[in-house]
Write a structure and sequence with these properties.
By secondary structure, the chain is mainly α. It contains 11 helices and 3 strands. It has a 3-stranded mixed sheet.
Length: 326
């Protein structure tokens, strides 16, 4: 930022709140967008919390794969709750105001959960690699202690990236304009416009962290799936090969969508022409991925279907028993 421009901004009054513009440039679609995103939010929360509940109560799902899936589902439900309610409120009322403190809290939680998800997805791909390509060593390597360490490492990594970026952003001075062209408090794309401080170090830090917390886990995930596909190609049974490919391709598509759009948003140049496209791309990893992950990773699995069936059966029996007791 030029010294003169910076000096001019220093004389302005510090802002106490930001205005999230969201999709305000589409006034005729506000009701439609609210309905669509509300349904997506309900589906996301229902699917993910159902997975967390099933993994917690069903003994048959107490395996490394479902342990990681439970972590992912809990993360996705937290992720959606951090972003979606505020976005829905803005669409319904047209009020996109949010205090600076609340905005920074939302930004921290978003950064923390986004970083954690990157590493958790790579951990899950590594788990599937061991199960498919090294089945004889799987039980020995992927023991309970390692599962807890890998999951904890993912959460700690997310906390580190969230804290590191948010602390740097919180040290900036905000003096307007106070409008953020987004549907949640991702302040990095508009940091030059809303801050009267020198933002070069913050932008550089955000770019470096984006590289560190997306590229390595993404490459590890791709490598794991490459080995998985190689192993699948050796399966002699055509039916078994097709079933394995179907599951693997679904996982890979979701992972590619998440990482691909995340890297596009944070690693492409800052440009007005790309700003609206980045907002659309961000819907993939903040709205679409949390919704489809339970379906892709869990709800199609035989074990989860059986656990769900048992749960529904027990619930039906309990309701019938309660009715008969009156």
């Amino acid at each position: 930022m030029q010294p003169m421009a910076n000096g001019e901004k220093q004389n302005q009054t510090a802002v106490s709140e930001f205005i999230l513009l969201g999709f305000g440039d589409l006034p005729k679609l506000q009701v439609l967008l609210f309905t669509l995103f509300f349904i997506i939010y309900l589906a996301t929360m229902t699917g993910n919390l159902l997975i967390v509940l099933l993994v917690a109560v069903d003994q048959h799902l107490h395996t490394p794969m479902y342990f990681f899936l439970g972590n992912l589902s809990f993360l996705e439900s937290s992720y959606s709750t951090t972003i979606m309610p505020k976005m829905l409120t803005g669409l319904l009322t047209g009020d996109g105001s949010i205090s600076v403190k609340a905005c920074l809290i939302q930004f921290f939680i978003f950064s923390f959960l986004g970083g954690a998800e990157c590493y958790l997805l790579s951990v899950m791909s590594y788990d599937r690699y061991l199960a498919v390509s090294r089945p004889l060593h799987y039980a020995t390597v992927m023991n309970g202690r390692l599962c807890v360490q890998l999951a904890a490492g993912s959460w700690v990594s997310g906390i580190l990236v969230g804290t590191s970026i948010t602390v740097r952003v919180s040290r900036l001075s905000f003096c307007g304009p106070n409008k953020i062209d987004h549907y949640f408090c991702d302040v990095i794309p508009d940091i030059k416009q809303i801050s009267c401080s020198d933002t070069h170090f913050v932008e550089l830090s955000a770019f470096i962290f984006a590289c560190i917390f997306t590229l390595p886990p993404f490459l590890l995930t791709l490598t794991s799936y490459a080995f998985i596909i190689t192993t699948i190609l050796r399966i002699k049974s055509i039916t078994g090969r097709q079933k394995a490919f179907s599951t693997c391709s679904s996982h890979l598509i979701v992972v590619a969508l998440f990482y691909g759009t995340l890297m596009l948003v944070y690693m492409l140049p800052r440009s007005r022409n790309l700003r609206y496209m980045k907002k659309i791309f961000s819907l993939f990893y903040t709205v679409l991925t949390p919704m489809v992950n339970p379906l892709i990773y869990s709800l199609r699995n035989k074990e989860v279907k059986e656990a769900l069936g048992k749960g529904i059966g027990k619930l039906s029996f309990y309701i019938t028993f309660q009715k008969s007791s009156f």
